[in-house]
Amino acid sequence: MKDDSRPLIADTKVSATGVDVYYGDNHAIKDVSVDIDDKAVTAFIGPSGCGKSTFLRCLNRMNDTIDICRVTGDILLDGFDINAKSVDPVQLRARVGMVFQKPNPFPKSIYDNVAYGPRIHGLADSRAEMDEIVETSLRRAAIWDEVKDRLDASGTGLSGGQQQRLCIARAIATSPEVLLMDEPCSALDPIATARVEELIDELRGAFAIVIVTHSMQQAARVSQKTAFFHLGVMVEYDATEKIFHNPEDKRTQDYITGRFG
Ligand SMILES: Nc1ncnc2c1ncn2[C@@H]1O[C@H](COP(=O)(O)OP(=O)(O)OP(=O)(O)O)[C@@H](O)[C@H]1O
């Protein structure tokens, strides 16, 4: 007989334990531990400068590109230490893709923007295979119909919302397992924002998605789990519903009710 009394336990995709981040003497992330669920959206919220983006960048070693930045602690992707010497950060970033605040298509054609990652990683053996990857990625990013007749046009000629969906197509073209999104809608108008939010909801069936957002409404709309950061500390991490309706910590309560931030 099916046992319905057991709680549903999601698979953990990324497990961080005791993570600290320093920029020179600035201790920006303090002993953060978090398990990120697979096939769900996790939102990072908190006031400006609390360390959301810094922690997000730990998850695909983007902080490696910042000279003064030092990261300690353990971060496991499917149980493997992403900071191990044997891990190539470029390969890691194919598994853990990223979309940035400002849409940043390459000054190349729409086609080449999407084909860029698959080319670097040798994912297609023929032009037909590459065409397939490009089309599938653009379809999944909900922009195929708008660009299918102008794949040779420059990606930078699209509207801001289209550019961001192109960047999402580029990020998913290498079939990542985790998608990191750092305030992906902050440069978009409300209609383009709604479009990207719908897309996030569709994509979560396929990836673990982690989104940094300044908008509590957005976190409530798109995520299943929410982590609240304050002054470099992860104060509370729970089901989004709980964080927004019945948080445990007074600092979370104060933030979600607009008392600071
Ligand atoms: N590239 C960097 N070099 C030096 N210090 C940095 C760098 N990036 C962030 N910091 C510092 O780390 C701390 C956390 O910043 P971070 O950008 O991660 O916060 P955030 O919560 O994402 O902020 P916001 O919501 O304003 O984007 C801040 O004190 C910030 O000044």
UniProtKB/TrEMBL annotation:
Alphabetical list of SMART domains matching this protein: AAA
Protein name: Phosphate ABC transporter ATP-binding protein
Domain ABC transporter: from-to ranges: 14-256
UniProt keyword list: ATP-binding, Nucleotide-binding, Phosphate transport, Transport
Gene Ontology cellular component terms for the protein in this record: membrane
GO molecular function, one term: phosphate transmembrane transporter activity
Keyword Methyltransferase carried by entry: no
Keyword Nucleotide-binding: yes
GO BP annotations, alphabetical order: phosphate ion transmembrane transport
Pfam families: ABC_tran
